[in-house]
UniProtKB/TrEMBL annotation:
<dbReference type="InterPro" id="IPR032387">
    <property type="entry name" value="ACAS_N"/>
</dbReference>
<feature type="domain" description="AMP-dependent synthetase/ligase">
    <location>
        <begin position="91"/>
        <end position="471"/>
    </location>
</feature>
<feature type="binding site">
    <location>
        <position position="538"/>
    </location>
    <ligand>
        <name>Mg(2+)</name>
    </ligand>
</feature>
<feature type="binding site">
    <location>
        <begin position="193"/>
        <end position="196"/>
    </location>
    <ligand>
        <name>CoA</name>
    </ligand>
</feature>
<feature type="binding site">
    <location>
        <position position="543"/>
    </location>
    <ligand>
        <name>Mg(2+)</name>
    </ligand>
</feature>
<dbReference type="Pfam" id="PF00501">
    <property type="entry name" value="AMP-binding"/>
</dbReference>
<dbReference type="GO" id="GO:0003987">
    <property type="term" value="F:acetate-CoA ligase activity"/>
</dbReference>
<dbReference type="GO" id="GO:0005524">
    <property type="term" value="F:ATP binding"/>
</dbReference>
<dbReference type="GO" id="GO:0046872">
    <property type="term" value="F:metal ion binding"/>
</dbReference>
<dbReference type="Pfam" id="PF16177">
    <property type="entry name" value="ACAS_N"/>
</dbReference>
<feature type="binding site">
    <location>
        <begin position="388"/>
        <end position="390"/>
    </location>
    <ligand>
        <name>ATP</name>
    </ligand>
</feature>
<comment type="similarity">
    <text>Belongs to the ATP-dependent AMP-binding enzyme family.</text>
</comment>
<feature type="domain" description="AMP-binding enzyme C-terminal">
    <location>
        <begin position="532"/>
        <end position="610"/>
    </location>
</feature>
<keyword id="KW-0436">Ligase</keyword>
<dbReference type="GO" id="GO:0005829">
    <property type="term" value="C:cytosol"/>
</dbReference>
<keyword id="KW-0007">Acetylation</keyword>
<dbReference type="InterPro" id="IPR025110">
    <property type="entry name" value="AMP-bd_C"/>
</dbReference>
Length: 652
């Protein structure tokens, strides 16, 4: 990608200053940026002191063998103790840790004292199964309290966990069990999804049949559906865990002790096991959760809607919030079960004050209509967050206006599985927010945009997003493959981390994410970001969501093909294509006009909400689709393919 021609097409003039009451009581103020700039390592050492250490670290960063960082390496701590026990010891045992809402409507409340007992019993159970520090444990679970307990129990005994999202296939699970050499798998009979039990145990049985080193499968009874059983290997959670002692003395581990492996899809087909360790990771997730969400643990009710199978669930459901003593909501199901107002019903029921969700979910709620959230009392909300992909400005504004009553700050966060914690985000009490922009690196983070030659681009230009200094929660390597770690993240720009995102700096120097460099389209010699064209389309009142791809074109190299979901009240008509093309041309310029526009009922998305543009590109180019197993709904592509021959197209 030639960064000179990655045009700044989208102009966004709206600004939203922090509400006075948020600014006046903000956890983190503008002064933090100056302090972190003056002495970055002293700043992170100060944040590490927010945790409880058995051995206080004297050395902050060892960067003697880049890019293999060691943070707080001479310090020792127990991650689970920091997330649970220390709050109980501080007299907060009666504070609610988790409000659990099952999809069928069943509920449970766990205080910190109760959570401590459950984690201790589970830790004792793992020990009874022969799990020792350093052994890997695979977790394949629904969104239930036992999932959080299992993760914390692993952390307590020093056994790195590998959580595999419960929607993944037996094949994907087997690959991850094998790569990590996990000896114990924790799962459930099933979970509830879209109103019915969704079996998990059969996939585990199939995966374990291919991974002979697994000794035990620990099974939570959630749905009560029948399961196959292998005597001696399979154990019920309630029979194995519930009878254990609720006393367990946590052991301190070095800060660089592995905490978890989390697999991301690899371009080679072999998943990458991202390794995160303990002290640095917990320091940054706890600090960023405190700073970005302005958490007041005494009064806030926090809800992150992600699944624990993704990094967002690790960092901002389990480790960050619990390290900070937060009260949080854990919801098992989907946003539209049993009705499209379920999320807002939960906000109203628990008095949620901080909501953290994905742009794709926000756009889905836009599509369903403003009247649905309007039925519920959302006045408790004070901070809204966005995670997972760039959020287009119109969805940002809808989120603030319709969900936040036009008074809540929206924090648009950029980070990755690999970074471990939030890296770029507005601060709700400091930043005048710009819809669609992650804006500025957090205090202590060094991020910028560079060109092909690794030179920092001037304001108003686009290029590649890089991280130029190590950060505490950074991945330490790819599990079992240091060379792949070097090749994947550190080979493109010397001594700078690059994970494949394009970005631009606006005239103020604020950062706008443009999506994966792989998703940049080359149209008549111009590099155009899919993100910007999608944002222009969604700014049209008829469009709820859009996905854009560049398809091979004999004239222009690539032609822009747009797939749009219309808002509930909008109807497809003969003039729609020209109307939307003209709208994009007005917003971004004639070069960015889509050649074809297709109205579709749904877009192909993974369970984490990411749009699979590869599949749309294959459809647009009449190619074989390839693997569709990670889609939430594999029938979506059949519907899109059936529609394609009747699509409108225009030139010019």
């Amino acid at each position: 990608m030639s960064s000179e021609s990655l045009a700044n097409l989208l102009k966004e003039e709206r600004r939203f200053p922090p509400p006075a009451e948020v600014a006046a009581a903000a956890n983190v103020t503008a002064e933090s940026y100056a302090r972190a700039t003056a002495d970055r390592l002293a700043f992170w050492a100060e944040q590490a002191r927010r945790l409880t250490w058995s051995t206080t670290p004297q050395e902050t960063l060892d960067w003697s063998n880049p890019p293999f960082a060691k943070w707080f390496a001479d310090g020792e701590l127990n991650v689970a103790y920091n997330c649970v026990d220390r709050h109980v010891e501080a007299g907060l045992g009666d504070r609610v840790a988790i409000h659990f809402e099952g999809e069928p409507g069943d509920t449970r409340t766990l205080t910190y004292a109760e959570l401590q007992q459950e984690v201790c019993k589970a830790a004792n159970a793992l020990t009874s199964l022969g799990v020792e520090a350093g052994d890997r444990v695979a977790i394949y679970m629904p969104m239930i309290p036992e999932t959080v307990v299992a993760m914390l129990a692993c952390a307590r005994v020093g056994a790195p966990h590998s959580v595999v999202f419960g929607g993944f296939s037996a094949d994907a699970l087997a690959t991850r069990i094998e790569d990590a050499d996990a000896r114990v798998v924790i799962t459930a009979d099933g979970g509830y999804r879209r109103g019915k039990p969704n079996a998990l145990k059969p996939a585990v049985d199939e995966a374990v049949s291919r991974t002979p080193n697994v000794r035990n499968v620990l099974v939570v009874r959630r749905t009560g559906q029948p399961v196959d059983w292998t005597e001696g290997r399979d154990l019920w959670w309630h029979e194995t865990v519930d009878g254990q002692s609720a006393e367990h003395t946590p052991r301190a581990f070095p800060a660089e002790h592995p905490l978890f492996i989390l697999y991301t899809s690899g371009t080679t087909g072999k998943p990458k096991g991202i390794l995160h360790t303990s002290g640095g990771y917990l320091t940054q997730v706890a600090y960023t959760h405190h700073a970005v969400f302005d958490l007041k643990p005494e009064t806030d009710v926090y809800w992150c809607t992600a699944d624990v199978g993704w990094v967002t669930g690790h960092s901002y459901i389990v480790y960050g919030p619990l390290a900070n003593g937060a009260t949080e909501v854990l919801y098992e199901g989907t946003p539209d079960t049993p009705h499209q107002g379920r999320w807002w019903e939960i906000v109203q029921k628990y008095g949620v004050t901080i909501l953290y969700t994905a742009p794709t979910a926000i756009r889905t709620c836009m599509k369903w209509g403003d009247d649905i959230p309007a039925r519920f009392d959302l006045s408790s909300l004070r901070i809204l967050g966005s995670v997972g992909e760039p959020i287009n400005p119109e969805a940002w504004v809808w989120y603030r206006r319709t969900i936040g009553a036009d008074r809540t700050p929206v924090v648009d966060t950029w980070w990755q599985t690999e970074t471990g914690a939030i890296m770029i985000s507005p601060l709700p009490g400091v930043t005048a927010a710009k819809p669609g922009s992650a804006q500025v690196p957090l205090p202590g983070i060094a991020a910028t945009v560079v060109d092909e030659e690794a030179n920092e681009v001037p304001n108003g230009s686009g290029g590649y997003l890089v991280l130029s200094e190590p950060w505490p929660s950074m991945l330490r390597t790819i599990w079992g493959d240091d060379q792949r770690y070097l090749d994947t993240y550190w080979s493109r720009f010397e001594n700078r981390y690059f994970a494949g995102d394009g970005a631009k700096k606006d005239e103020d120097g604020d950062i706008w994410l443009l999506g994966r460099v792989d998703d940049v389209m080359l149209v008549s010699g111009h590099n155009i970001s899919t993100t910007e064209v999608e944002s222009a389309l969604v700014s049209h009142p008829k469009v709820a969501e859009a996905a854009v791809v560049g398809a091979a074109d004999p004239t222009t190299g690539q032609a822009i093909v747009a797939f749009v979901i219309l808002r509930g009240s909008a109807a497809e008509d003969d003039g729609l294509t020209e109307e939307l093309r003209a709208h994009v041309g007005q917003a971004l310029g004639p070069i960015a006009k889509p050649k074809r526009v297709l109205a579709v009922a749904e877009l192909p998305k993974t369970r984490s909400g990411k749009i699979m543009r590869r599949l749309l590109r294959n459809v647009a180019e009449n190619k074989e689709l390839g693997d569709v197993t990670t889609l939430t709904d594999t029938t979506v592509m059949d519907l899109i393919q059936a529609k394609l021959p009747h699509a409108s197209s225009s030139e010019g």
